[in-house]
Amino acid sequence: MAELEGLEFGKSDFVLLDEVTMEQFMENLKLRFEKGRIYTYIGEVVVSVNPYREMDIYGKDTIDAYRGRELYENPPHLYAVSDAAYKAMKRRAKDTCIVISGESGAGKTEASKYIMQYIAAITNPSQRAEVESVKNVLLKSNCVLEAFGNAKTNRNDNSSRFGKYMDINFNFNGDPTGGHINNYLLEKSRVVQQQEGERNFHSFYQLLRGGSEEMLASFHLQKDPALYVYTREGAAATTSNNDRVSHKAVMSALEVIGFSAEEISSVYQILATILLLGNIQFETDGESVRIEGLDAVNHISELTLTDPDSVSKSLLYRTVATGGGDVIEKGHSEQDACFGRDAFAKALYERLFGWIVSRINSIIEVKDYNPVLHGKNTVIGVLDIYGFEIFDNNSFEQFCINYCNEKLQQLFIELILRQEQGEYQREGITWQHIDYFNNQIIVDLVEQQHKGIISILDEACLTVGKVTDTVCLDSMDSKLAQHPHYTSRKLSPTDKSMDFQKHFRIRHYAGDVTYSVEGFLDKNKDLLFQDFKRLMFNSANPVLKEMWPDGQLSITEVTKRPQTAATLFKNSIVALVDKLACKEPYYVRCIKPNEMKSPVLFDDARCQHQVAYLGLLENVMVRRAGFAYRQPYARFLQRYKMTCEYTWPNHLMDSDRDAVEAIITQHGFQDDVAYGHTKLFVRTPRSLFTLEQERAALIPILVLFLQKVWRGALARLRCRRMRAIYAIMGCYKRYKVKAHFWEVERSFANVRTMGDYGKSVKWPTPPAALSQFHSITVMLHRRWWARQIVKNIPPSDMLEVRAKVAALTALNGERKDWGVGRAWERDYLANVRDCPQTSSTFIRASKDLKNRDGYSQVVFSGFCRKMNRFNKSSDRALLVTDKYVYKLEPKKEYKVLKRLPLDAFTGVSVTSGVDQMVALHTSSQDDVLMCLQRGQLCPNQDRVGELVGALVDHFTRIRKGPLPVKVCPSALQLHMRGKPKSVGVETKPGQTMADFKKSRDGFILLVPAN
Ligand SMILES: Nc1ncnc2c1ncn2[C@@H]1O[C@H](COP(=O)(O)OP(=O)(O)O)[C@@H](O)[C@H]1O
Ligand SMILES: [Mg+2]
Fold first, then answer.
1. Long-range contacts from 752-758, C-beta under 8 angstroms, 24+ separation
2. CA 296 to CA 282: how far, in whole Å?
């Protein structure tokens, strides 16, 4: 109930009337109309009064104000019901439909356009291109359909002469994905004839007034509707339509929708053909019939890409199949020819219209829709169908149209009045029954099998022989004489408003309509000679050919009687009602305030009449007594259980009904609801809105809660995975370590028995974690291995081994040759193999020395060339013992020339070369410089390494002190009597043995070349 307008505008919902009487209803309706409030609610039904003026209530601001709002939050508007229908569809995945009803000129088509615009404006916020194009085609299709399906009537300058039901398909997102248009009974008789003051369809005038010069010339047309029989009547009619502007708009709309250039030109060629056809006249000399002037025929054949002879032939003859299966050509009478021509023109237009609709449908149909992938596809249908009509002369079309309105009223009664009351009864809600007029009886009058008017018409059409309209009227009179809603002059002879043999009257729910039976049978039969169908099917224009698939049949095949126009229409309306009945309906009830198209005139009687026949008062009564909203307990609970502590997340009560009661009581809505057997009924939408609002506020919290739980679940899952990964990694690492151990164990298991104690065994590559362990084990093995080797050395060799080890360490790889490969004999002077002549002498001398000086061990002895302090070199013998170092004179029986205690020596210097020079450094800086000489044993081998090794070993092992060894890559440095000297090495050709020579800063050792 809209409560936002001031009281000066009357009641915005008729439900709020103080008393539900016709007077109060009309007073309110009039007040609102005069105040420019054209919309008023009856609950969710919108009552709309045609303002006949531009209203500033359809702009973007208004759309924004209504978007997503509840019905009663804003003043009544079409947008509010559109939004309600859209919301119902989106929230509850319900198919909905908006049924717009009202008589001709009441504003149905305008309303349907505003509804479409609103839906287009509020959908597709992300501006997806494919959705935009669907919306665009849906909106543009209006313009095209109006051009071809609307005409000026005496009621309405832009009267829809066809019924339109448009389904808009939505995806789960609520964005339009496509649509489908159903069209109903185009009033095609208008193509060839119009009532006084009316026009043919807009499209003809648009072509003639708006078409370019070249276009019209190519169609052999002139720019004047008065020149054409079919448009002559309406040529002078003043209308609010600007045909020229509209023509442009339609052309561009066709293009935007997706019609190809060929298709567009075919459309206009067909229109031109119809205009030219209308001007064809026949003449007769009493026997045969001819066409007056053959130009038109040629033009028609040119426009339809058919053979001109065939065109004339189909206009003048018809092919009939004789009983024997032969085919003969039968010439038309002049009257038949005219009838044939008009029928052809009507059929051309009807098929053109049908083709345009189907072409639009093929463009906007939902393609590649997979409900599994895309979710439920929901639909909003918008029905804008011709309203109830009463003209001065009402014919077959009005009969059909008014029947259709009866059906829709029946649907309204069904859904709003009967079902509603039925439901209260079923649910055991206390309810006072409200009477309303049920028009089922009129529906039956028209459509009942065998007895109804349509059946009688069909029967008359089936009867062979001359059955005229009047015979048919007689048949109706006799069969329907008792029907309270049917009468005719024959049945009420005093009623002079009807003619004998011409009129019958139906008392429709919306008023009495007198129909003229003239032409009923022809229109119902809707006869079109097969020759025209074949002519069109054989056209070289593929668009035309497509419109006439039934022209393919040969004359002998077309014996079956087609269904009559009335039956076809009835079937399509029944299908439409079925389609609407399964959707959630929203109603817009349009009222026409006056017959003058005046924005200020409120014709009380006309309006009251409409209010009465639309059943609006009953609607208010039912609504007032009723409940706006109902839902099964389980669904209600599901939707609102979060708004109550007793029901969230699950209730512990005996039934869902009790749980729903808990929600209602908590919110204090006890007085606004009723509890049915299976459903909860809510009287005012406001209560529901409060619940909706609360729900909307809670949803984010629930979403957060769900997100929290889900994120936690995800994190735990991830954590478990990580742990598993680490467990696997740990196992694998342990395995790698163990595998390495096993491999080492396997490789080295037998090294004890191997000849090389495993020196040749390849170490397996260790995992990174074991690199330190690896180097330790490698070292361990080396040590063990060395121990095994050393263990096997006989004690007598130990001294030599030790000396070699000491030399190895001391020389540190810097001296090329250090004699490691040979046996180290140490005491060469005493060695008979080395010094065969002198050894015995030396042995004697050394014995004396030993006795005298008390040394216990000879560390080294050998000949050498020595530099003395007078810079003279001479051959001497060197004896190193564990106590002293002796310089001996070999020529004088090894007389001691000099004796130095071993302690006096502080270091040794040698060169890195192969020379045998050695400098023994002393603490008194009076170093000993010499060049070792070789004896017989090893004439070419090095003795420097042995001397160094023996000295270093002795110092480190026995004296427990270091003896630094310096290996000089170039000149050797030493001191003599405290003075620094440098000793280089030079090769000298012709030198037989190494000898020193004085140099500028010391000495040079000259060595023999080679
Ligand atoms: N909401 C409206 N605002 C302004 N004019 C309107 C409105 N509704 C209808 N009309 C006027 O009334 C005319 C007839 O309306 P229309 O919708 O064609 O009637 P119907 O389809 O019911 O026969 C329109 O051409 C327009 O001039
Ligand atoms: Mg209309």
1. 757/784, 757/785, 757/788, 757/789, 758/785
2. 12
What string of DSSP letters covers 674-703?
EE-SSEEEES-HHHHHHHHHHHHHHHHHHH
Span 479-507, average pLDDT? 93
Q: Any idea which ligand is nearest the CA of 187?
A: 2
pLDDT at residue number 372: 73
Q: How far apart are CA 357 and CA 181, in angstroms?
A: 7
- Say if residues 987 and 922 touch (Cβ distance below 8 Å): no
CB atoms within 10 A of CB 537: 18
Given pLDDT bands bounded at 50, 70 and 90, which one contains residue 236? confident
Contacts of 555 (CB under 8 A, 6+ apart): 319, 320, 321, 327, 530
User: Parallel, antiparallel, or unpaired: how do β-strands 679-682 and 673-675 relate?
Assistant: antiparallel
The residue to which tokens 């630094």 are assigned: 964
DSSP 837: T
- Residue 849, classed as helix, strand or coil, is helix
387 is catalytic: yes
3-class secondary structure, 434 = coil
Taking the CA of 153 as reference, the closest ligand is 1
Residue 703 confidence (pLDDT) above 50: yes
- 979-988/1002-1008 β-pairing: parallel
Q: Indicate the average pLDDT of the chain.
A: 89
- 3-class secondary-structure state, position 748: helix
- pLDDT tens, position by position, 828-844: 999 999 888 899 999 99
Active site residue: 109, 153, 488, 831, which one?
A: 109
For residue 241 and ligand 1, the question of a CB distance below 6 A is answered with no
* Residue 13 pLDDT: 87
* Mean pLDDT on 614-638: 83
304-332 burial, b if ≥16 CB within 10 A, otherwise e? Answer: bbbeeebbbbbbbbbbebeeeeeeeeeeb
Residue-wise pLDDT for 22-59, tens only, equals: 999 999 999 999 999 999 999 889 999 999 999 999 99
- Does the Cβ of 104 fall within 6 Å of ligand 1? yes
- Distance, in Å, from the CA atom of 433 to the CA atom of 417, rounded to the nearest integer, reads 10
Catalytic residue check, 389: yes
CA distance 544 to 272: 13
Which pLDDT score, from 0 to 100, does residue 416 have?
A: 74
d(CA 344, CA 530) in angstroms, rounded, equals 10
pTM over 0.85: no
